[in-house]
Design goal:
The protein is mainly alpha-helical. The chain has helices at about 5-20, 25-35, 45-65, 75-90, 100-120, 135-155, 160-170, 175-195, 205-254. Helix 1 (about 5-20) runs antiparallel to helix 2 (about 25-35) and helix 6 (about 135-155) crosses helix 8.
Length: about 250
Amino acid sequence: MDAHLIFLLTLGFLAGLMDAAVGGGGLLQIPGLFNFLPRNMPVATVMGINKFASFCGTLTATGQFVRRIAVPWKMLLPAAALAFLASYSGARLVSYIPVQYMKPAMLAIMAVMFVYTFCKKDLGQAVRTTALSRKETAWGLFFGALIGFYDGVFGPGTGSLLAFIFVRFFAYDFLTATASAKVINLTTNLAALSFFVPNGHIVWAWALPLALANLSGGLVGAHLAMRGGSKFLRYGFMALLCIMIGKFGWDLLH
């Protein structure tokens, strides 16, 4: 088997596993694709390949989660619809927005999220039994649109941001928050693809094997997340934040 294909499949599997278990698969997959694919390939095409593979992995993980975990569908469905529209808009603007300016802001946000999660030992451990209020539902719609736009433009850390929002602002446990984040993340990936595919920003020879690897990783990652529960996800979430902080910090220094 070609060494490049082995690298592609390994990268896709690990990214799918990481994304399903704790989020942040794009943090691994996007830099890998930029290093692996031809240097002269347009940014939009690299992002299109990444989005197609991520969609397949997220679809698999979402199916695994929602079959076993009760998620707040009344808030998630309209929030996902807004996230879809916002992500599509972001994907259309990806060629015009200097995404490097997002890294300092994301670095600060990730640092705050880590400190807050570390200090609040019980964050995301209690299972919520009450329904969302109208105010909370409205906030869910707002966050869905905001994170959807970010995912369409840039992407890395989308699942982590969504999970933190569901835990911090809606008092869900990490397992329910991760499952809910997957539903919105799935629609934002689909929205971006609705721009990338018709405009020819996908090279199928790379996208299809990468998608298969993402799908396999998503199955394994979802199984690990549900088996480990909210405590496992809390530690995994903080570990992911450390990696993201280090990656974004390194990029800014160099």
